[in-house]
């Protein structure tokens, strides 16, 4: 049964689905080339967007959480730490569903950006905490001796040194976010793997679509790792 028969039965695809009658061949290059633009479009419009915006939110919010835990009075720091631990220890798909059904007026894509950013900020806050703790005590004492204000000490001394040792771990979490995007199917957001499954459902050809999704994930993760490696070397050279 091909997509035309499914369409005749009242089922419709949300993405462009080629009509193909061959369901016996293991691999069809013409089919793979035909679905590639749709897969790339889904990757750019959803998977990459959620990962990039989510990483920006997580990087900024994670640093704020790490600094709050270190500077706030103990009861407030404990409260922030408890909330971060609660979010970190709860599956992201559960958080997506809670926000999706609890805030029905929000667009699913907006929910995805917020939930992924907040969820991964709790992991990144631990990375920042370890980086801040690794700054030698003498750096704090030297800043005090030079009469530097607390704000300037953090901006010019502590954070730059902490970032240098945390970039590789932050990059790993960005790659993990790439691989967690298929959970978006829980809130009806059509990311790349969901698109691959939908095309496969209408053509009965899954091998090409799933393989293309895997290759795109691999290429995206590789370039992310290369970018993180270059950033790490640049920070090491700058300091």
| Radius of gyration, in angstroms, nearest whole number | 23 Å
Largest sheet: none
Total beta strands:
0
Termini gap:
62 Å
Beta strand %: under 5%
Low-pLDDT regions: 4-9
**How do the SSEs run, as a string of H and E?**
HHHHHHHHH
The portion of residues assigned to helices is: over 70%
- The outline comes out as elongated
Based on helices, strands and strand pairing, what is the structural class?
mainly alpha
**Average of the residue pLDDT scores:** 87
Topology readout:
Layout: H1 3-8, H2 29-71, H3 74-88, H4 92-102, H5 108-133, H6 137-145, H7 150-180, H8 192-203, H9 207-238
Protein model, in words:
- This protein is mostly helical.
- 77% of the residues lie in helices and 0% in strands.
- Helix 3 packs across helix 5.
- The N and C termini lie far apart (62 Å).
- The relative contact order is 0.15.
- About 3% of the residues have low confidence.
Please give a handful of descriptors for the protein shown:
9 helices; mainly alpha; 239 residues; 77% helix
Structure described in brief:
With 239 residues, the chain is mainly alpha-helical. It contains nine helices and no strands. Helix 2 crosses helix 9 (207-238) and helix 5 packs across helix 7.
